[in-house]
Design brief:
Helix content is 30%, strand content 24%. By secondary structure, it is an alpha+beta fold. The longest helix is centred in the middle third of the chain and has 15 residues.
């Protein structure tokens, strides 16, 4: 069963973003969109994080992912998972640098198999995508 864990955030105007030099996570959310996170089979599942390309390579994506991981730990999740493209630099290789590992296809639960099916139905090339996970340590 999937439940929304926290509401999505939307990008504010670029004018507001450009006038701010802050690196607080609350301000960084204005540079990015956290589409949705859900509970999938007792795991936190991060469906999507996007950072506007003009703000790339500044550590914003890393800070957003880390903040979601901290949030998930506070919610007593032991793992966070996501689905991403295997070979795109800012996808699986980026998440691997943050401690995520590829989950073997044989380890996919029925809910994650359904996620893969929905991605295929949406036209995503499943052979180019992977499910990744990161263990969340008990200490926060």
């Amino acid at each position: 069963m999937m439940n929304t864990l926290f509401p999505g955030y939307k990008i504010r105007s670029l004018r507001d973003i450009c006038s701010s030099r802050s690196t607080r996570i609350e301000d960084l959310v204005t540079l990015a969109e956290i589409e949705r996170a859900q509970d999938v089979d007792g795991n936190a599942y991060l469906q999507q994080i996007d950072v506007h390309p003009s703000y790339g390579r500044r550590g914003i994506g890393r800070k957003l992912v880390e903040s979601v991981c901290v949030w998930a730990k506070h919610q007593n999740y032991h793992r966070i998972l996501l689905s991403t493209f295997r070979d795109i630099e800012w996808n699986a290789p980026f998440y691997a640098k943050l401690g995520f590992q590829v989950l073997a296809e044989v380890e996919l639960t029925p809910s994650f198999q359904q996620i893969r099916l929905k991605e295929a139905e949406a036209g995503l090339p499943i052979d180019q995508r992977v499910i990744m996970y990161r263990e969340l340590l008990a200490s926060v």
